[in-house]
Specification:
It is built from three helices and four strands, in the order αββαβαβ. By secondary structure, it is an alpha+beta fold. A four-stranded mixed β-sheet has the order 3-2-1-4, sandwiched between helices. The protein starts with 8 loop residues before the first helix and ends with a strand.
Length: 100
């Protein structure tokens, strides 16, 4: 059974604006509509201002709470070069500061 999440634009925008997020994209099983009860939400993110490790964890937790499911936050800079084509294939933009 495929699991669905309501990615509420208002909530996403609020979290992004409060945390200097320039871009937020969804990839993985939720982006492909293949999520199940064990799936987490995979988010690709880039920031206006760089963030430290603990800030990234706090932001990840904010999205987990908003979506009521575990979130894995991956920065564009930390994305493995071998995984990049697969991520880009699935990628669905949730927030882009340039197109608000």
């Amino acid at each position: 059974m495929t699991k669905k999440i309501n990615f509420e634009k208002k909530t996403i925008k609020k979290i992004c604006e409060e945390n200097d997020i320039k871009y937020l994209g969804l990839f993985g099983s939720y982006a492909r509509n293949e999520a199940n009860q064990k799936s987490d939400v995979d988010l690709l993110v880039s920031f206006i201002k760089s963030k430290g490790f603990f800030e990234l964890v706090q932001i990840e937790n904010k999205f987990s709470k908003a979506f009521n499911v575990k979130v894995d936050l991956v920065t564009k800079n930390a994305l493995n070069v071998y995984l990049k084509p697969y991520v880009n294939k699935d990628l669905k933009t949730l927030y882009n500061v340039n197109t608000r």
